[in-house]
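Re-run with default settings, no changes from the original entry. Doing this only to confirm the output is reproducible before filing.
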Amino acid sequence: MKRLEEEVKKTRDLEKKCKLLEETIKAKNPNSIPMMLHAVKETTTTDKSEVADLKSRIKSLEVQLDEQDKDFERKLRTLRQETERVRDQYEAKQGKGPDAKRVSELEGELE
């Protein structure tokens, strides 16, 4: 709610500034340039603080994303190791693993 109220206030402020700029352009007064500069200057100062806030938010989100990437890589590594272990067990039961060939050779020699 608070954020919505801030956005509504900001929207109203920007609309007022737009109207002022439009009136300044339509009036074609000799002092219209200073009026335009004044309106733009006010907008720029609010934008600077907003940009700084957004930059800090971006930094925190990048750190969070890096942490998640590391966590997912760790989980992926664990799953691959588990898959290898299960595959080795399956091949050993089926007699297709590297040890199975040696066992069958030894069985052949015994016979």
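Residues 17 and 39 are 6 Å apart (CA to CA). The chain has three helices and no strands.
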